[in-house]
Write a structure and sequence with these properties.
The chain is α+β, with helices and mostly antiparallel strands. 37% of the residues lie in helices and 20% in strands.
Length: 660
């Protein structure tokens, strides 16, 4: 009895772990473990439930598909369930699958195709025109992502034939090349990079803004007919050929076999070439070709009995870690990279591997000179899996205490594992600082957009942010595209920005964790830049709306000698260092407003300034602490949340009557 109780506890622990990892994988698009490790946990649970069927419950992860629909998208009910497939991890399980099929369908043939590692979607067409696309979700209910799917280049908006109704299933993915480009850009920007192509594809497809999805360069392979009217294919291979004729980008290769020996040979062939494919696969799919046999073979509570997914283990190789190089991204994050003795891995020669951060290095105790195991995360990005042996006399590796680019002291981000250089004059970060400094919400210097700033940096005109205020007509008049009038306008905009409120300058400095609202709080609390520079932690953290993380970030920023030097330069160049906020009266004192929708008489920024001039506060999100939601035309989710929370909603006319 005691042994059975131990088994029951083990099953519950496995379910909890699997549900945790599945939520990160399917719903947060941020997996913590590899697919192989996840599949291993699932296999342990399946084996235990097979041995102790009395422990199977309806909510077990073995009995359901992993994802759920997200509330930010409208739900779509799948009339034909979008099922997952049973996994096989060795050839013996493939042979056992064939035996089960032959018992009910002795004459069955098979189609074998690569298993694309992406996000499964449904595409629906009416009279040959695409009208709806949705994610798999939990297999029964998915998310309506039609607008985002319209940005995927290989999804036809109109088919070559006007079929009355057609629903197909496909896999949205990112090519290996595009994934590498995105990760490289994320690392340059100091963003947390996607862990693998599947994670990247899922996160890209579930964006609120279709323009973001379009920028990611997603692709799709269609691999199944879910529903169709007007034609009845007899076989799976025939249906794929037909979909191709309609204009779909079908699964790139699919071959039919009369017996299981041919299937095994194809599995091995795909395994050998998977490292050379321009897209990521995590297995091969075996399907009974004859569509009429599928209802006969039936399904379990979770899987169809007419298909099987063979999963390949990740390829790993042993090599030497020669050195660790540290680069600085545009946001100041120090990124360590392992320099490896070249090794051929998953179709290409690998000589470098990402080490992520100090925590990753410390956890695996990675040292220069180690013998290590490497693999490609998602078969794309090389990473160090573990250390085989330390080199003689090796020492634990620590990231440098000073920035490799500028020599300034670096800081550990209290909210993440990142080590960051916060020197505002760090050369590697300069362009990013310039773009932010001149942006509309910061110093608002019209005419100094990203392309112009990049050009000025390349021309040697800008080597620090303060150089903006040293630009002269003689520096610009001879540049192509700059006439006398445009130079005058630009220099005028620069001069006018000197008179901006202190809060704009604070925000423009790009202090970590300090956004527009926090910059306003600092300016209003201390009134002068000098007072902010000398403020202590207790005073900073006591500001209403501030916190310890923000307070520490301000302290760290002003602890850098280069920060004081930059502010002294600004002061000498004539930039305003005082708050200009004027309180007309206290009619909105203690009241919190949220603005939503389009206002007729002024912009939202102007409305916010009016509220603040009457000592009110403006928040970007609706909560129980919100007093009023000022709603203009086409108000969206904020209005709905206000109504749900019982927050008072006021019109623009009411607002005008309050301030007149």
């Amino acid at each position: 009895m005691e042994a059975f109780e131990d088994i029951r506890k083990k099953v519950e622990e496995l379910r909890a772990r699997i549900n945790y990892y599945a939520d990160l994988y399917y719903n947060a698009d941020s997996p913590e473990i590899s697919d192989f490790e996840y599949d291993s946990l699932m296999r342990q649970l399946i084996d235990l439930e097979n041995e102790y069927p009395q422990l199977i419950t309806a909510d077990s992860p073995t009995q359901k598909v992993g994802g759920v629909s997200d509330r930010q998208f409208s739900p779509v009910e799948h009339r034909v369930p979008m099922e997952s497939l049973q996994d096989a991890f060795n050839i013996e399980e493939v042979l056992a699958f064939d035996t089960r099929v032959r018992q009910s369908a002795p004459a069955a043939t098979y189609v074998v195709e690569p298993k694309i590692d992406g996000l499964s979607v449904s595409l629906e067409y009416q009279n040959g025109v695409f009208f709806r696309g949705s994610t798999r979700g939990d297999g029964q209910i998915g998310e309506d992502v039609t607008a985002n799917l319209r940005t995927v280049k290989n999804i036809p908006s109109k088919l070559t034939q006007a079929i009355p109704y057609l629903e197909v299933r496909g896999e949205v993915f990112l090519s290996g090349k595009r994934f590498e480009e995105i990760v490289e850009q994320q690392e340059l920007n100091g963003e947390k990079p996607f862990k693998n192509p599947r994670n990247a594809a899922a996160g890209s497809l579930r964006q609120k803004n279709p323009a973001v999805t379009a920028s990611r360069g997603l692709d799709i392979f269609v691999f199944n007919i879910q529903q169709i009217q007007g034609i009845e294919p007899e076989g799976h291979k025939e249906s794929l050929d037909y979909l191709k004729s309609l204009g779909f980008n079908t699964i790139p290769f699919y071959n039919q076999f009369a017996d299981i020996d041919g299937v095994v040979g194809e599995i091995n062939r795909i395994g050998e070439i998977r490292g050379t494919l321009p897209f990521d696969i995590d297995g091969a799919v075996i399907k009974v070709n004859e569509l009429a046999l599928r209802p006969i073979l039936g399904r379990t509570s979770k899987f169809p009995r007419w298909a099987l997914a063979f999963k390949y283990p990740p390829e790993e190789k042993e090599t030497d870690l020669i050195d660790i190089e540290v680069s600085v991204g545009r946001t100041g994050v120090l990124t360590p990279t392992a320099v490896l003795k070249p090794v051929f891995l998953a179709g290409s020669t690998v000589s470098r591997a990402i080490l992520h951060n100090q925590d990753f290095i410390t956890e695996k105790d990675i040292r220069i000179g180690d013998r290590v195991i490497v693999r490609k995360a998602g078969d794309i990005i090389p990473e160090v899996v573990r250390v085989v042996a330390h080199a003689e006399n090796s020492v634990a590796y620590l990231l440098p205490e000073n920035c490799p680019s500028c020599g300034a002291e670096v800081f550990r981000d209290p909210e993440a594992a990142a080590v960051r250089c916060e020197n505002p004059d760090c050369p590697v970060q300069m362009l990013r600082h310039l773009i932010h400094f001149c942006s509309k919400d910061a110093m608002d210097i019209e005419g100094l957009g990203e392309s112009i700033l990049e050009r000025f940096v390349n021309e040697g005109l800008l080597k620090s942010v303060s150089d903006i205020y040293r630009l002269k007509e003689d520096d610009l008049i001879y540049l192509e595209g700059f006439g006398k009038k445009s130079v005058e306008n630009l220099l005028g905009a620069i001069e006018n920005s000197k008179d901006n409120d202190l809060s704009r300058l604070i925000f423009a400095l790009g202090i970590r964790h300090i956004g527009q609202n926090a910059a306003k709080l600092l300016a209003e609390r201390f009134l002068t830049m000098e007072a902010i520079e000398s403020a202590g932690f207790d005073v900073l953290s006591a500001i209403e709306g501030f916190g310890q993380v923000m307070a520490q970030s301000v302290l760290d920023f002003f602890a850098i000698p280069q920060t004081h030097a930059l502010i002294d330069e600004f002061r000498a160049l004539g930039l305003n260092m005082k708050s200009k906020k004027e309180i007309k009266d206290d009619r909105f004192s203690g009241k919190v407003f949220v603005l939503t929708g389009a206002l007729e008489n002024f912009s939202r920024q102007e409305a916010a300034a009016i509220i603040e001039s009457f000592n009110g506060k403006v928040s970007s999100s609706v909560s129980k602490k919100t007093d009023y939601v000022l709603a203009g035309e086409d108000a969206g989710s904020k209005l709905q949340k206000a109504e749900a929370l019982g927050v008072e909603v006021i019109s623009e006319a009411e607002f005008l009557s309050w301030i007149e």
